[in-house]
Amino acid sequence: MTEPHCDPHPNPAGIKRVAVLTSGGDAPGMNAAIRAVVRTATSQGIEVIGVRRGFSGLHRGDFITLGPRDVANTLQRGGTILLSARSHTWRTPEGRARGARHLRAHDVDALIVIGGDGSFHGAHFLQEEHGIPVIGLPGTIDNDLYGTDHTIGYFTAVETALDAVDKLRDTGASHERIFVIEVMGRHAGHIALDVAVAGGAEEVFIPEDAKEVAGVLDIVRASVKKGKMGSIIIVAEGYPGGATGVAQAIQDGTGMETRVSILGHIQRGGSPVSSDRILASRLGEAAVYALMEGKSDVMVGRQNHETSFTPLADTWEKRKDVSRDLYRCAKTLSI
Ligand code: F6P
After folding, report:
1. What is the pLDDT of residues 58-109, one digit of tens each?
2. pLDDT recorded at residue 3
3. Which amino acids does the record list as binding substrate (predicted)?
C-alpha cells in the first residue's frame, strides 16, 4: 500500500487493491474512466490492477498493474487501453469461479466494471456467487441504462453521427434526394432522437414507437412538395427493418428514390467530447469512493446533476424511456 496523496476518504471497507475492466462494446471516454479510477485509487493509497479483454481476461487472469503514469495521455483517446470483449465463458458459473480465483490470488478486494447491461450481469453474478464487491460504471454509446441520465460515450457518438448527417445533407440537398440514415443504439432510440433534432431530420423512427412507415408517407411526399431540398430520415438500428426497411417502404409507397446510409461502428470511435470526459472522470472517482464506503452491486451514475447509485439489477430490469418531449419537438420542427 502506497502513501495517500490527498485528503483520505473514509475506508471502512478496508479496500487496499481494486481491479478495473472494460467490457462489451467500447465507448469513447472509457479511457477517461480508467484514468480516473487509477488516479483516485492511487491518491488514497489503493493499488490498481487492470484486467485486459474484459471478462475473458478475468477468466484467464490477464492482469497488469496500473499506476498514475500508465494512464497518462489517455484522457483524449478513444477505444479502451484495457481492450474489450464480449465473453461467453463468463456466462457459466465455472467461468465466474475461475475469475474469482484469479482475483483472490492477486489479493484484489473489489472490481470496477465499465460497460453496459450485459457487463453488469457479469459483475452482479460475481458478487452474488463469490462475495466480491463490484461497482458498475455506465460505458456504452447507447445511453440505454436505467439509473443515469447519460452513459459514457453517448455524447461523442451523437456528435459523430451528427457530423455524418450534416455531410449527407449537403449531398442530399444537391441532388434533392431522400437520405435514410441508420444510427446505432441497439434496442434504444436515444442516439436517433438526439441526432434527428440536432440534424433537423424530417422524420425519425425509434424502437420505442412502433409507428408504421406507411403512416408517414404523406409527410415525406409533403416535404418534397414544400420545396425542401432533399430530406433526412433518421432510423434507429432497433426499429424493425432498420434503414433498409424504411427506405424500401418509402420507395414502394411513393415511388421516390432513396439512398441508405448505415453509419455503423464509426459511431463508437474517436476522441471523447468534453461531456464524456467529464462524466467519465466524475464517475471513475465516485466508483473508488463508493467501494471504500462499502457500497457494492450498484452502478454509479449521474441523475439531475447529482451522483447516484442504482442496484445493478435495476439497470437492466427497469427501462429508461426516450425523452417524449424531445420526440414531440422533433415532429413539431420538421414542418
Ligand atoms: O452497445 C453498443 C453497440 O455499438 C450497439 O449500438 C450495437 O448494436 C452493438 O454494440 C454492436 O456490437 P458489435 O460491436 O458486437 O457488432
Report:
1. 999 999 999 999 999 999 999 999 999 998 878 889 999 999 999 999 999 9
2. 56
3. 140-142, 177, 184-186, 237, 259, 265-268
* DSSP string for 113-169: EEE-HHHHHHHHHHHHHH---EEEEEB-TT---TT-SS-BTHHHHHHHHHHHHHHHH
Residue nearest to atom 13 of ligand 1 (CA): 25
**Model confidence pLDDT, tens digit, residues 193-208:** 999 999 999 999 999 9
Element holding 278 (H helix, E strand): helix 274-292
CA of 25 to the centre of ligand 1 (A): 6
* Ligand 1, pocket residues at CB < 6 Å: 25, 116, 140-142, 184-186, 237, 268
Q: How far away, in angstroms, is 237 Cα from ligand 1 center?
A: 10
Instruction: Place 24 in a pLDDT band, splitting at 50, 70 and 90.
Output: very high
Nearest to 190 by CA among 148, 141, 156, 120: 141
**Domains contained in the chain, CATH given:** 17-153+272-317 (3.40.50.450), 157-269 (3.40.50.460)
Q: Which atom of ligand 1 is nearest to the CA of 86?
A: 15
The pLDDT value recorded for residue 216 is 84
CA nearest to 28, candidates 183, 151, 156, 143: 156
What amino acid is encoded at 230 in this protein?
A: G
Residue 4 above 70 pLDDT? Answer: no
Instruction: Decide the pairing of beta strands 298-303 and 134-138.
Output: parallel
The answer to whether the CB of 33 falls within 8 A of the CB of 137 is yes
Please name the residue that has the C-alpha cell 467490457.
Answer: 23
The pLDDT score that the predictor gives to residue 5 is: 62
The residue behind cell 453517448 is 154
